[in-house]
Amino acid sequence: MIESLYNLPFHILVPPNIKIRRPAWFRKPSPMVMFSIVLLSYFLVTGGKQLNSPRPPIIVNYIFSPYRYKYDVIVEPPSVGATVDEHGHSRPVAFMPYRVNGQYIMEGLASSFLFTMGGLGFIIMDQTHIPGKTNLNRFLLTAMGFIFILVSFFTTWLFMRMKLPSYLQP
């Protein structure tokens, strides 16, 4: 039934018979090149404004935010902020304090970098299951993946503590 609905436009419209050839210089990209492109685009997309919904947990709201470019174009936030200390001097601030739904551009890039680093840690740990790895390589991959995950988790937690000093306090 559904297949006949999909084929209906091709009974009415006939696609042209075109022979398109691939240029000789064009090669199929390797899986690692495609992975790098997807990972880079993911890093660039997730580094912006947080979701405005109060429903997700704060840490999920802080890390995962697919509205970066739209938010940056409309609101035009500064890359870093500034605050005045007790002596009247202006000093730069990397984190927008006490606002979970607002951030500076550099803060968003740093948080998306850490989230991407944690994901890379899981991918590296998955590479330990490929047959043919020596025990030393397996150990090094496991250690490196575990370190990536731990650094990502604790640094993101530290970022949240900088934004909200009473975060996860009793």
TrEMBL record:
The chain crosses the membrane at residues 104-124, 136-160. InterPro entries: OSTC (IPR042416). GO terms for cellular component: oligosaccharyltransferase complex. Keywords: Membrane, Transmembrane, Transmembrane helix. It is found in: Membrane. Component of the oligosaccharyltransferase (OST) complex. Specific component of the STT3A-containing form of the oligosaccharyl transferase (OST) complex that catalyzes the initial transfer of a defined glycan (Glc(3)Man(9)GlcNAc(2) in eukaryotes) from the lipid carrier dolichol-pyrophosphate to an asparagine residue within an Asn-X-Ser/Thr consensus motif in nascent polypeptide chains, the first step in protein N-glycosylation. N-glycosylation occurs cotranslationally and the complex associates with the Sec61 complex at the channel-forming translocon complex that mediates protein translocation across the endoplasmic reticulum (ER). Belongs to the OSTC family. PANTHER family: OLIGOSACCHARYLTRANSFERASE COMPLEX SUBUNIT OSTC. This is Oligosaccharyltransferase complex subunit. It comes from Ceratitis capitata.
